[in-house]
Automatic annotation (TrEMBL):
Protein's UniProt name: Lipocalin-like domain-containing protein
Protein keywords: Signal
Keyword match Signal: yes
Native species: Christiangramia oceanisediminis
Signal peptide annotation: 1-22
Top-level taxon in the UniProt lineage: Bacteria
Keyword set includes Signal: yes
């Protein structure tokens, strides 16, 4: 579960781009991820699981991301995002981020064999 949380968090962080364009609707903008996000669905292989409200919450600042599970702090990490590869890295883990809407992201491990991912939505 810790691995999945780490993957989810990394993917989420990946959208904080390093572009000169600071438009919050641009996934490459440095401020796109800043705010609070909540997981709505988790994916493991072909299975889709609904997440409980408040179960996984991620809060991004300009240089740090914090992760909460069921209201308890799980970790706080510095992160790095590469807008060309959409790879998000923190705490020795990397994930990919796919933007599917203005306030929705899918973070995933990028593997076709052992796919793990998470749909997150902006809540603040």
């Amino acid at each position: 579960m810790k691995k999945f949380l780490t993957l989810s968090l990394l993917a989420m962080i990946a959208l904080v781009g390093c572009s000169s364009d600071d438009d919050p609707g641009n996934p490459e903008a440095s401020n796109f991820l800043i705010g609070t996000w909540e997981s709505r669905e988790s994916y493991i292989g072909d299975e889709v699981y609904d997440d409980v409200d408040g179960e996984f919450v991620y809060t991004f600042t300009e240089d740090m991301v914090s992760s909460e599970q069921n209201g308890e702090l799980v970790g706080e990490y510095e992160y790095d995002y590469d807008p060309e590869t959409t790879m998000l890295s923190f705490d020795g883990t990397s994930v990919m981020v796919d933007k599917i809407g203005d306030d929705e992201l899918i973070m995933h491990n990028g593997s076709e064999i052992d796919y793990q991912g998470q749909l997150v939505v902006r809540i603040d």
